[in-house]
């Protein structure tokens, strides 16, 4: 009876207690015109064993990273998760925790969040980090709102290399808060184009993702300077956190805010969530930072303790003074990130980042050598890279699926610039430590085979 909460005897007993003649009488106040009036058309119930078997059969219809070679990225990445992450994060005292409304009695939860904040500051080179946000897109939008509050300006400039769905979320946020957005394109090398005509004295923030949506590593220092010259803040958006193990810290480059996605830090892809919103900034701006900030202190007896230092949401302070309507943090995801980063350590994260970068470079080189295939962007990349393919995207991805491969991603879905020639397409491929050289070789072989499928068979031969 695990999935059937009430027997007929249970129902009869409850009806007797409340004095109702039958279940139907409980719905007497609902007009007959909006009631179904018949039994639900449901199949005969399964036993528990049959249910699990049926659900397992349905799940096998999904193509995922465990069933296929996975070369997709674009903001969600397939990385190996050490066993210690699942082991510690699944401890009941963590997995049952939610928002600590009486924060100080949850010392273990607060300490875990404090450790996460510390690790994020070390990674980004920033002074303070909050106790996490929902996911990367809304964290990026919150960075825009914060920049608008700090500068008193309402114009945000976004590079088109910023994740297209992040840009959509920013547009949605700002459309109803008096803000406006402007987008700037990219140069031939895949990096942000000249900003001289985009930034002005009305600009609150410049948003640049690096590595960007095409996997290209931006040269951030001059972009930061360009924003600061106009009195604007610079927001570095990160969707692939592993890159922080190899690239220079955002704070060292002069960034004012770092926002983005922490899914790569020990959080499964899970078909799209839940994920982890990263957010870090300068100490001077901490009063305008959204979400929560956990701090360390001592009690009256000198013992170390953790406290909710700041919680700038409307449930804690007057609505007009709130910086955000974020009502909770992604506590369990932040815990996973803290365990993951602690397990790898500084050197381990760097080694992993190098492994990812080298694997992607090898794949890029092999694909570039295929006749008719091009790598359109010359700037350095991390994990991901764009390939111009001499075939329509749908044809390529369908053939790859037949070979047990998921990828690449059709960029024409978001960028009309990549749809000019109907006979070609631009695909985004991602290589992580989960793609060994043998898997890359199979991918390259499958791409090479696309051409042979189109070539006419020699006279007298068969396929």
Write a concise synopsis of the structure shown.
The chain is of the alpha/beta class and 463 residues long. It is 34% helix and 15% strand. The strands form four sheets. A seven-stranded mixed beta sheet has the order 2-8-7-6-5-3-4, sandwiched between helices.
Please give a structural write-up.
The protein is built from 11 helices and 14 strands. The chain is of the alpha/beta class and 463 residues long. Strands 2-8-7-6-5-3-4 form a 7-stranded mixed beta sheet, sandwiched between helices. Strands 11-14-13 form a 3-stranded antiparallel beta sheet, covered by helices on one side. Strands 1-12 form a two-stranded parallel ribbon. Helix 3 runs antiparallel to helix 9 and helix 5 runs parallel beside helix 9. The chain is globular, with a radius of gyration of 26 Å. It starts with 7 loop residues before the first helix and ends in a 9-residue tail after the last helix.
Number of helices: 11
Average residue pLDDT:
91
Number of strands: 14
* Distance, first to last CA: 56 Å
Main pleated sheet: 7 strands, mixed
Considering DSSP H and I runs of 4 or more, what fraction of the residues is helical? 25-40%
As a percent range, the share of strand residues is 5-15%
Q: What is the 3D form?
A: globular
Order of helices and strands: HHEHHHEHEHEEHEEEEEHEHEEEH
Briefly note the structural class of the backbone: alpha/beta
Strand order of the largest sheet: 2-8-7-6-5-3-4
Q: If you compute it from the alpha carbons, what radius of gyration comes out, rounded to the nearest whole angstrom?
A: 26 Å
Low-pLDDT segments: none
């Amino acid at each position: 009876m695990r999935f059937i909460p009430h027997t007929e005897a249970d129902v009869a007993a409850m009806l007797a207690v409340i004095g109702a003649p039958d279940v139907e009488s409980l719905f007497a106040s609902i007009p007959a015109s909006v009631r179904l009036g018949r039994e639900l058309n449901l199949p005969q119930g399964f036993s528990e064993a049959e249910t699990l078997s049926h659900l397992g059969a349905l799940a096998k219809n999904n193509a995922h990273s465990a069933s296929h070679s996975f070369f997709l990225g674009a903001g969600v990445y397939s990385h190996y998760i050490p066993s210690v992450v699942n082991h510690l994060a699944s401890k009941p005292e963590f997995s049952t925790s939610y928002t600590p409304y009486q924060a100080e009695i949850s010392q273990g939860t607060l300490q875990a969040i404090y450790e996460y904040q510390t690790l994020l500051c070390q990674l980004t080179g920033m002074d303070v980090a909050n106790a996490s946000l929902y996911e990367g897109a809304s964290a990026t939008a919150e960075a825009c709102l914060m920049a608008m509050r700090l500068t008193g300006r309402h114009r945000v400039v976004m590079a088109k290399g910023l994740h297209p769905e992040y840009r959509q979320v920013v547009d949605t946020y700002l459309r109803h808060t008096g803000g406006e957005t402007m987008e700037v394109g990219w140069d031939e090398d895949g990096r942000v184009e000249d900003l001289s005509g985009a930034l002005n004295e009305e600009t609150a923030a410049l948003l640049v993702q690096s590595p960007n949506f095409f996997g290209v590593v931006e040269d951030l220092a001059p972009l930061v300077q360009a924003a600061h010259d106009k009195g604007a803040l610079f927001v570095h958006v990160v969707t692939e956190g592993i890159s922080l193990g190899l690239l220079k810290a955002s704070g060292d480059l002069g960034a004012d805010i770092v926002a983005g996605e922490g899914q790569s830090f020990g959080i499964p892809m899970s078909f799209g969530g839940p994920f982890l919103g990263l957010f870090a900034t300068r100490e001077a701006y901490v009063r305008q930072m959204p979400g929560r900030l956990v701090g360390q202190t001592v009690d009256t007896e000198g013992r170390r303790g953790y406290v909710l230092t700041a919680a700038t949401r409307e449930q804690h302070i007057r609505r007009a003074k709130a910086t955000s309507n974020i009502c909770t943090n992604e506590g369990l995801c932040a815990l996973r990130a803290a365990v993951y980063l602690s397990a790898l350590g500084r050197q381990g994260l760097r080694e992993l980042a190098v492994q990812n970068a080298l694997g992607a470079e090898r794949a890029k080189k092999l694909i570039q050598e295929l006749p008719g295939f091009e790598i359109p962007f010359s700037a350095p990349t991390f994990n991901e890279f764009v390939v111009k393919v001499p075939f329509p995207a749908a044809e390529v991805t369908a053939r790859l699926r037949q070979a047990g491969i998921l990828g690449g991603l059709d960029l024409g879905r978001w960028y009309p610039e990549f749809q000019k020639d109907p006979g070609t397409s631009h695909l985004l491929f991602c290589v992580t430590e989960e793609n060994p050289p043998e898997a890359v070789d199979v991918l390259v072989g499958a791409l090479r085979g696309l051409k042979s499928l189109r070539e006419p068979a020699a006279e007298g031969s068969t396929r």
